[in-house]
Amino acid sequence: MLRTYFLLAWRNLLANKLASLINIVGLSIAVACSITVFLTLRNFWTLDDFHANGDRIYMLEYVQKHQDETRTFGDAPALMANALAADFPQVKHTVRVERENVTVYRNESVISEMITYADANFFDVFTFPLAQGSPAALRDPSALILSHDMALKYFPDQNPIGQPFTVLTGSREQKQFVVRGVAADFPDNIGFKFALLTGYHPVHTALKNQDWSSHISAVFVELHPRANIATLARQMKPYMVRYNARNPEKPIESFVFDNLRQPAQNAYDVDRRPAEANHPLISLVFGAIALVMMAISCVNYVNISLGGVTRRLKEIGMRKVLGGTRQQLIGQFMIENLLLCAFALAFGLLITELFLIPLFNDIMTMTISLNVGQNGTLWVFLIGLLLFTAVVSGAYPALYVSAFRPTVVFAGKLKFSDRRTVARVLLVGQFALAFIAVIIGVALTHAGKQWQNIDWGYTPDNALVLRLTDSTQYTILKNELGQLPNVRAVSGAQSHVGESMNSQSVWVGGIEKQALVFDVGPDYPQTLGLQLAQGRFFDPQRRAENTQSVLVNQTFVEQHGLKQPVVGQSMRLDSQLVTVAGVVQDFKWFGSGAERPAILRPAPESRFTYLIADFEPGRGPQVATAVTRIWKAHVPTMTPSWFYQKDVFENFNTTSRKLSAGFGVLSGLALLIACMGLYGLATQHFVRRIKEVSVRKVLGATVSQVILLVNREFISLLLVAGGLANALCFTGIQLLLQQTQPFTGGLRLGLWPYLVANGVVLLTAALAVSVQSWKVATVKLAESLKNPD
Amino acid sequence: MIQTINLQKLFATEEVETTALNGISMDVKDGEFVAIMGPSGCGKSTLLNILGLLDNPTDGEYNFYGTAVARMTERQRAQLRKGSIGFVFQSFNLIDELTVYENVELPLLYLKTPADERKQRVEAALERMAIMHRRNHFPQQLSGGQQQRTAIARAVVAKPKLILADEPTGNLDSKNGEEVMKLLGELNDEGTTIIMVTHSPYDAGFAHRIVNLFDGKVVTENFHV
């Protein structure tokens, strides 16, 4: 019997290829979303649970009061580690962990990385197996242990062990390490991790001269088995007193211990917590997304199934006449359903692996992966999901269909209920979402294009920028580069337009204002090609005078209300009185072309971190080769890091493109699902109206009248959805642009993105119902009006 | 005046070919009342569909009031059909969502008849069929006879030259059936050409001529005087 059911189910799937395909695709998208959400939530709920001693590892945190607000902090006074280890026998280990942002120069790029300093017993406490090397490397201050990802990133084709690794620390100190170990790939549910790991050794500048006022990223405590953390926590008072005596301005209220495996309820709210912890709301939101997706898909599925049922009315009637019980019919439909859901599950896994996981890992900091092989809970979830989908999506059609009475079926008197309010509301919801996603997608693409085409205020085509790693390089390189025939001018800067600047207070007429400050060489504005609007540039010959002069941009003049003549006016910057020597035209300093008041202030050569070379048009590659050669001669240990100024916003543009592409995928999905919902409802609706349409056609209705008639309901539902979505988007985007004006600049979207987005959605919707509408409108009257003989 | 010459209709699926009409040649004069009879599956309804311009023959000629229509497209047939043919079906085929009045009004709407004329003609047709008192009811609220009278009102409201009736009494009891046949007889007396498919010899008795079909062919023609 079961075999027959499966055979029949298979034949039915094949017989209704289009409906089956649509159902499978729709369900698989929902299934894929659910799997992704499951993987994410499982990571959330099992964060850091892979450490063998995790239940005995605690983070030392402290509570402080800040203007009536009590806050918990995850960093810790450095000296607490030794104190706890020395004073309490129940403490097995304490581990100090400090982190520092460092810069790694690799070929054309400057990469920001985080280095972690940790005590030598780090690997005794934490379960981070090493793929290569030994934990003893932490005793050597020049040894570096890389995470699996870092090893792949920096040494993709070679063995990292023994390779030199140079970083530039926050205090611009160049440090040479040798790679002595590589960690095994971290599990996905990692909350506390490292990228570059080295020993906690006082030779490192970041760890020098620590006393009771020094805080480090974390102090971890591992207790002996059966030791009680509460007992320990009660004995923290003397340390608090000692700390507060040294830090009277910021006293600590209490110390707390937070378990690595079972974080405290408020863990997500702890500032500077060394291990990630997630807000419970995130779980809720993710869960809700999955549920909504499943609900939408299941309702769509039910609609499409019911629409297809009419084709099988005779079969159902005959089965009953021939003695089939209702249970057997239900069984048959449920097995058809299970088969379809199994396909959807397989497809869903494929979508998860190929699209959603890469997309998720690209957007989120957390990593998820689909290791079906080594994952018991995932299997349980998948089987549960299969059964859930099969029952939820299949139960209603099966029950509904199996209840038909044969006599009614054969007499052709079966009436399908037309009151599917839930389905309609859902359709409006789905289309509203689709409209929103498409509008945002189009708006982002439009914004990206607009940002890219914005006038820079100067010509960036002939400038090459070299990043300097120490203060002595500028003079040497400038002299040699200046000799090159293709180089017209060389200048330097501490902060470079498009890459770096400071936002600072400046007092104009005694009133505090904000401005971006660029510290640059005296000939930097001309070398970059900035345009003078009033006054003069800095005079490279008059150094003493320069130190008291600044250039401002036009936005500075307008926004801060400087009266004419601007040149010669004074203002206070960094407690120094400076005079405006000239006004430059606005220049693009940020990818979006946002205008802000800006000041260019002369800086001494010793502080330059950029060298800018202005070259003859078309000579970029030659200059780049020369720059590399000269650099190698002087700084053989490091690869030069340079870029063309025209590419300075490439990161911004790439991000903006990625975001547009991401929303493109999202809106495509949203649109697909919405159209499936529409298709499902339309299938049912059209089947129900076929007779009426035939009568109307006999009486003279034209094809276009019929198409309009059968789609009238959907048109109004779509208009409601579109109206809602457009109003929401318009207000939302308007508000957002107002809020982010300092970053999005003069971005004006206009009506164009809305028109395009609405056109896309409506056209796709029309396509979704087109085949069926056409079929209905051109129905063969001779057949549809045939008497039920 | 209607004339068919050697009408053929084949229904073909991938594997089987069925001949529904096999060389039907017949004339129907203006003002004639013709009944088409024959056993189930003999091609009566297929013939009626072709005569009513709902379907095209596979082969043969069909002359509809001077126009050769056998090769016309669906759109051309629809244009020709509009207003010139009225249909009466066994299962009435009224639109459930519309009232009696609205059902009858429908053909005039599609003919773009002006509102006041429409009202006048719908009311006249309803009066004529003695269904005026149920004008605001929906089809489900009517008896079978009333539904068929509504359907006839709808068929005549546009004043067609030809009425095609497919088993018009098939779903009615004898009393209502008799009434419907009388109405069709009256319409014919007033000059409307009627072609009716029926199983009932009694109903066929209302016609001037009975065409008997068998296996897609005309086997006999009987004339009443």
TrEMBL record, chain A:
GO cellular component labels: plasma membrane
Record bears the keyword Cell membrane: yes
GO MF term set: transmembrane transporter activity
Record keywords, A-Z: Cell membrane, Membrane, Transmembrane, Transmembrane helix
Membrane topology: Multi-pass membrane protein
Main location group: membrane
Record flagged with keyword Transmembrane: yes
Subcellular location: Cell membrane
Pfam families xrefs: FtsX, MacB_PCD
Residue ranges occupied by any MacB-like periplasmic core domain in the UniProt entry: 20-238, 474-618
UniProt domain ABC3 transporter permease C-terminal: residue ranges: 288-402, 665-778
TM regions (residue ranges): 21-41, 281-304, 338-359, 379-401, 422-444, 661-682, 714-737, 749-771
Protein name per UniProt: FtsX-like permease family protein
Organism: Spirosoma sordidisoli
Automatic annotation (TrEMBL), chain B:
Keyword Iron-sulfur belongs to the record: no
All copies of domain ABC transporter, residue ranges: 2-225
Pfam families, A to Z: ABC_tran (PF00005)
SMART domains noted in UniProt: AAA (SM00382)
Domain of life according to the entry: Bacteria
GO terms, molecular function: ATP binding; ATP hydrolysis activity; transmembrane transporter activity
Keywords: ATP-binding, Nucleotide-binding, Transport
Example of a GO cellular component annotation carried by this entry: plasma membrane
Gene3D superfamilies for this protein: P-loop containing nucleotide triphosphate hydrolases
InterPro entries in UniProt: AAA+_ATPase, ABC_transporter-like_ATP-bd, ABC_transpr_LolD-like, MacB-like_ATP-bd, P-loop_NTPase
Family per record: Belongs to the ABC transporter superfamily. Macrolide exporter (TC 3.A.1.122) family.
Protein name in the entry: ABC transporter ATP-binding protein
Organism: Spirosoma sordidisoli
